[in-house]
């Protein structure tokens, strides 16, 4: 469970990026977080792995107050959260296999695990035939699928997808959304931010709408309404 408990974040004195947010996300949910630019979406997500800390209130991951974790505990927490972004952030001089293997190496996994898990996660995102390709040899949609595979390979409890289709055409957008839904169906909690109304409406699951740092809508089977 993720709980934002009366969370506020102030920048530059009085400006509130988030104002008294109380929000609970259950394990296995797929939640789309929508709102205009500056509504507080990114701030909300960055609090989950303590890149930003609340000015007031607390954020809980399970029973743990993220703000009270030691550096070692915080590192452990971050390993349970996968992230993908609008820009794919792949290592351009490494193959698809090496990009994903690198994420496992950083997490301390051994060669045997890497050799077993990388092909499996590439199969999940439909890129088994691109294992030895370099990023420049892939389309934008394929690069994003590599980024998803890299985020998943260490089996996170939560996947944060921050505008993952922002640079993609409609066909690749559809493919990425279908992969995110499949990942969620396998039990991973997915938190998605997007400005794409079609994406949110096609998912048909929980939608949280932010406006000026506050939750103004929270619909279990919602649509993109601003």
Descriptive overview:
Helices cover 34% and strands 27% of the residues. The protein is of the alpha/beta class. A hairpin with a 2-residue loop joins strand 9 (206-211) and strand 10. The protein is globular.
List the helices and strands and how they pair.
Elements (H helix, E strand, L loop, with lengths): L1 E10 L3 E11 L4 E5 L6 H6 L9 E6 L2 E2 L5 H9 L1 E5 L10 H11 L4 H14 L15 H13 L5 E5 L7 H16 L3 E5 L3 H7 L2 E6 L2 E6 L7
Parallel strand pairs: 3-8, 3-9, 6-7, 7-8
Antiparallel strand pairs: 1-2, 1-4, 4-5, 9-10
Helix pairs in contact: 3-4, 3-5, 4-5, 5-6
Number of strands: 10
Shape: globular
Largest β sheet strand count, sense and barrel closure:
6 strands, mixed
The helix/strand order is EEEHEEHEHHHEHEHEE
How big a fraction of the residues is strand? 25-35%
CA(first)-CA(last) distance: 27 Å
The helical percent reads 25-40%
Radius of gyration: 18 Å
| Helical segment count | 7
- Could you name the ranges where pLDDT drops below 50 across 5 or more consecutive residues? none
Average per-residue pLDDT, rounded, comes to 93
Strand order, biggest sheet?
Answer: 6-7-8-3-9-10
- The structural class is alpha/beta
Task: For the structure shown, list the relevant keywords.
226 residues, single chain, six-stranded mixed beta sheet, alpha/beta, four-stranded antiparallel beta sheet
């Amino acid at each position: 469970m993720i709980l934002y408990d009366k969370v506020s974040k102030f920048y530059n004195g009085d400006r509130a990026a988030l104002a008294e947010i109380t929000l609970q996300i259950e394990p296995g949910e797929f939640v789309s977080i929508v709102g205009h630019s500056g509504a507080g979406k990114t701030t909300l997500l960055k609090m989950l792995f303590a890149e930003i800390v609340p000015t007031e209130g607390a954020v809980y991951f399970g029973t743990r107050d993220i703000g009270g974790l030691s550096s070692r505990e915080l590192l452990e927490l971050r390993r349970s959260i996968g992230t993908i972004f609008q820009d794919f952030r792949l290592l351009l001089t490494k193959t698809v296999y090496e990009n994903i293997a690198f994420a496992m190496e950083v997490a301390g996994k051994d060669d045997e695990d890497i050799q077993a898990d990388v092909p499996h996660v590439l199969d999940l995102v439909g890129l088994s035939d691109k294992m030895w390709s370099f990023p420049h040899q892939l389309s934008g949609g394929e690069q994003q699928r590599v980024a998803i595979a890299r985020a998943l390979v260490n089996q996170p409890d939560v996947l944060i997808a921050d505008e993952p289709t922002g640079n993609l055409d409609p066909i690749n957008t559809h493919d990425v959304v279908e992969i995110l839904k499949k990942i969620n169906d396998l039990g991973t909690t997915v938190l998605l931010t997007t400005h794409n109304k079609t994406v949110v409406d096609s998912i048909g699951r929980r939608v949280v709408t932010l406006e000026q740092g506050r939750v103004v809508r929270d619909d279990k089977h919602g649509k993109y309404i601003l």
